[in-house]
C-alpha cells in the first residue's frame, strides 16, 4: 500500500483538479479521464504501491535501453563539472522526482530552465546526455519512467509555412504530459535576434514566439519537467530569453584547468586502452605553445 506521507504528496500535486475531490464523478468518467488527461493517468499511477510501480517501470526500461537514441554517456564520464551536475540533479529531484526530502530542505525553488553555454567542443551535448541518462536510471528508484527528449533545429524547421511553429508546439506538448528532461541543442537557431522583414524571418518569429510561450508555460505550470538548452552564441540570444534562464546559466568555457584536461586525457587513454603518458603529452604541448609564442613575438 501507498504510505500516508506519499498520499499527502500526491494530494498537494493534484488537489486543484475537479476530479480529485469528486470520487463519484471520477468513477463515472474514469475511461474518458484516462484517455484525455495526462494528469489523471499520472495520479492513477502514483497511487499504486511503490513496489508495483517500480516493477512496471523496470520492465519498460529494458525496452527503452535498447532504443538507438538512448543516451550512452554516464555522469561518471563528466570530469571537472561536479558542481554544475549537482545543480541540475537537484532541480530534477525537486521538479521531476518530487523528492520529499529535497523539497522540504530547499530554501529556494531551484530553476526549471538551464542555459548551457560554451564554444564548440566544450561538451554541451555530452553534459546534457549524461544528465538525461542519470535522470532515467535514477527515476526508476522512484517508480517513475522519465522521458528524455532531444530537439535540434532540423527537427523543427520545414519548407512549409506555419508548420515549423506547429512542430515545436507539438514537441513541447508531448514532453509536458510526462515526467521529462528535455534537451534543446543549437538553441541560437531559435533564440537569436534577427530581422522579421522577410518571409523566412516571419517564420522564425513565429517559432521564437512559440518557444517563449512554452518556456513561460513551463515556469507557471506544475509540470514535472526540467529544460536544458545549449548554445554557442549566448550573447546573440534575445535578452528576454537570457533573463528567463539567468538563474540556471551554466558556462562550460569557465573553470577549465590543465588538471581537468589531464584527467580527461587519462580517462580517454584508459577507456580506449591507449598506452600513452598523458603527463608527458601535457608537458610537450606546453613546450610547443611556448616556442610558438616566442616565434610569433620575434616575427612581429
Describe how the helices and strands are arranged:
Blueprint: H1 4-14, H2 23-28, H3 30-36, H4 38-46, H5 50-64, H6 82-96, H7 100-105, E1 113-117, H8 124-141, E2 147-151, H9 163-176, E3 180-184, H10 188-191, H11 199-220, E4 225-231, H12 239-244, E5 249-251, H13 258-271, H14 278-299
Parallel strand pairs: 1-4, 1-5, 2-3, 3-4
Helix pairs in contact: 9-11
Task: Report on the architecture of this protein.
With 300 residues, this protein is of the alpha/beta class. The protein folds into three domains: 1-47, no CATH class; 51-251, 3-Layer(aba) Sandwich (Rossmann fold); 258-290, no CATH class. It is built from 14 helices and five strands. The protein has helices spanning 4-14, 23-28, 30-36, 38-46, 50-64, 82-96, 100-105, 124-141, 163-176, 188-191, 199-220, 239-244, 258-271, 278-299, and strands at residues 113-117, 147-151, 180-184, 225-231, 249-251. A five-stranded parallel beta sheet has the order 2-3-4-1-5, sandwiched between helices. Strand 2, helix 9 (163-176) and strand 3 (180-184) form a beta-alpha-beta unit. Helix 9 (163-176) runs parallel beside helix 11 (199-220). The longest helix has 22 residues, at 199-220. The chain is globular, with a radius of gyration of 23 Å. Residues 283-300 have low confidence and may be disordered.
